[in-house]
Design brief:
Elements: E1 33-37, E2 40-43, H1 44-58, H2 65-70, H3 74-94, H4 101-114, H5 118-129, H6 136-152, H7 160-176, E3 180-181, E4 188-189, E5 194-195
Antiparallel strand pairs: 1-2, 1-3, 4-5
């Protein structure tokens, strides 16, 4: 894409072995929660359902067993993405940014035109971002949202200064939400705006049609 839109989906596979299973997030106050963000729960069942959708898509005819093997930390990837989405929502709201359905449709159409059609988008999103077909629209919404947040801040995500400016806005939103993660999945890092079980920074320059391999840097 000419001056392609960038995203902050940090889909880097975690390498840390899972901590012992706990029945609550941060104690007994939130049983069944994978995380609590701004007082709202993200249930373990929600995270598991997202991962299951990806696994189902990976099992379609023609998918390699290697794809499943490489995405062994899928639960953490999905939880981190769900939390990040809420942080991005807060940062965008603070900056007066909103995203229309038309903008999402536009970026999806552009992606399809450059990747051989809708099936090409589905394939690349699944293989490079671990995004199931039903999750593509939410992923692209975040992409538009991040770009518009950067514009509202007068930041260029292709420059170190721009990345820092957006990162500071996301960190501020993250702290304000007082994120509490079930220790089973690690801890939330406000500075990197991702689970502590990740090694890569929050900002990765990817597009809907050419993404970074989630295993990179792991």
């Amino acid at each position: 894409m000419h001056r392609r839109r960038r995203t902050a989906l940090a889909l880097t596979a975690a390498t840390l072995v899972a901590a012992p299973l706990l029945t609550a997030c941060g104690g007994a106050a939130h049983p069944g929660a994978a995380a609590v963000v701004g007082g709202d729960r993200i249930d373990v069942a929600t995270v598991q359902a997202q991962a299951a959708d990806v696994r189902s898509a990976q099992q379609e005819p023609g998918r390699s067993a290697e794809l499943v093997t490489k995405s062994g930390q899928l639960i953490r990837v999905k939880l981190s993405g769900l939390i990040f989405g809420r942080v991005l929502d807060r940062a965008a709201k603070d900056a007066g940014v909103s995203v229309s359905r038309k903008e999402i449709q536009q970026i999806r159409s552009t992606a399809a035109a450059q990747s051989g059609g809708e099936q090409g988008v589905r394939t690349l999103m699944l293989e490079q971002r671990w995004v199931a077909p039903g999750q593509i629209e939410a992923s692209l919404r975040q992409e538009v949202q991040l770009q518009k947040l950067a514009q509202a801040l007068g930041a260029d995500l292709q420059s170190p200064a721009g990345v820092q400016a957006v990162g500071e806005a996301l960190t501020g939103a993250s702290k304000a939400l007082r994120i509490d993660v079930n220790p089973r999945y690690g801890a939330w890092d406000n500075q990197k705006v991702q689970l502590s079980t990740y090694q890569a920074p929050w900002i990765t320059q990817v597009t809907p049609v050419r993404g970074q391999d989630p295993e990179a840097g792991a």
